[in-house]
Specification:
This protein has 206 residues and is of the alpha/beta class. The relative contact order is 0.22. Helix 1 crosses helix 7, helix 3 packs parallel to helix 4 and helix 5 packs antiparallel against helix 6. The chain is 40% helix and 15% strand. It has a single domain, classed as P-loop containing nucleotide triphosphate hydrolases (Rossmann fold, 3-Layer(aba) Sandwich), CATH 3.40.50.
Length: 206
């Protein structure tokens, strides 16, 4: 029996949106809300990928965790752009400062996939209050939280990618980001950026 030929239609191109910031900035909550508003979507919660290391894990905020963090970031970047190349709107949340964003930019250029970068940066008091009030296995130690908040205090050329969410609810923050994504505010320049308009206007659910 000869089966009829099936026309192969390449999937629509997706995009990657990195929601970054210090612990307690609200990244995971906001990223989940964004993923719920985009179709088709993937939410990559980066903390999970560190938890996959069962033995020999090093707290990622320690200097000696540099190599470990690079390995985990490589895995996460591959996953994010793999989904996006298949047509998914990928929302990635994690502590991705300017010191790591080049990994994402290189993948965006290689895959010709649009990349957005938004840094949630509530003030230090708000960040500490949110972070220390979390439960589960989330980082609540004020020392590392203050240190990482300081690292995000000056983003250099990425200052325009920062969003002060101190007085915003998670829902209001997500709404603000969605509007900015539609305008291309957080789009980083890449070979994909020239024709990223369609990819930056994903289907949204009310």
């Amino acid at each position: 029996m000869i089966l009829p030929a099936v026309e192969q239609i390449p999937p629509a191109r997706g995009q990657v949106t990195v929601v970054a910031g210090p612990p307690g900035a609200g990244k995971s909550t906001v990223a989940a809300l964004l993923a719920d508003r985009l179709t088709p979507s993937v939410h990559l919660h980066s903390d999970d990928f560190w938890h996959y290391i069962k033995r020999g894990v090093i707290p990622p905020y320690l200097p000696e965790a540099q190599r470990q963090n690079e390995v985990v970031l490589d895995v996460l970047v591959s996953a994010a752009f793999g989904y996006a190349a298949g047509g998914y709107q990928v929302v990635y949340d994690g502590v991705v400062g300017p010191w790591f964003i080049d990994l994402f930019r290189a993948a965006a250029k290689e895959r010709a996939v649009p990349l957005n970068y938004v840094v949630l940066r509530p003030d230090r008091h708000t960040t500490l209050e949110r972070a220390t009030g979390r439960g589960g296995d989330a980082l609540t130690d004020p020392g590392p939280i203050r240190s990482m908040h300081e690292q995000f205090s000056d983003l250099g050329v990425y200052e325009t990618n920062a969003l002060d969410s101190s007085s915003l609810t998670a829902e209001a923050t997500a709404d603000s980001i969605l509007r900015s994504l539609a305008r291309g505010t957080y789009l980083l320049d890449s070979e994909a950026g020239a024709d990223a308009g369609d990819a930056c206007d994903p289907v949204q659910h009310p």
